Amino acid sequence: MTSLYILLGIIVFFLMALYISNTIQRKKGNTQERKTPLPSIDVRTKQEKESGCCGMHEVCEKDSLIAAFREEPEYFDDEELDRFHFRESGSYSDKEVEEFREVFYTIVDEEKPRWVRSLQLRGIAVPDQIKDEIVLVVSDLREAKMHA
Length: 148
Known about the structure:
By secondary structure, the chain is mostly helical. The chain has helices at residues 2-27, 46-51, 65-69, 94-106, 112-121, 128-147. The chain folds into 2 domains: 1-31; 46-147.
């Protein structure tokens, strides 16, 4: 019972301290709320910083500036993939993964990042089994484009 009184006393003390602090700040004319910026941690590699890619997406959209402003998804003769709308990325069968892989490799290289963005807009998750493969291919394309 005594520890309950102690706990209540501590809570009341902090509430009073907060009230007094706010009252003092208002008397000083400080009526704005404090805005503490969130700390930012830049985890990008030197290459990502130089290329402008944030490195935080599965596939950087830097190559497709137009896609960032699109409201409607773009189709790449892949309407059959719409049946995977809202499907979990880890729930695809091997046959379904091959469908994604076939579409990915039939798309022109410059359009591959836009295709991934289109899937995102359509609510279609890329299968876990080929995510690394897609990122690797698009990264290689981007690097080749930088050195060209």
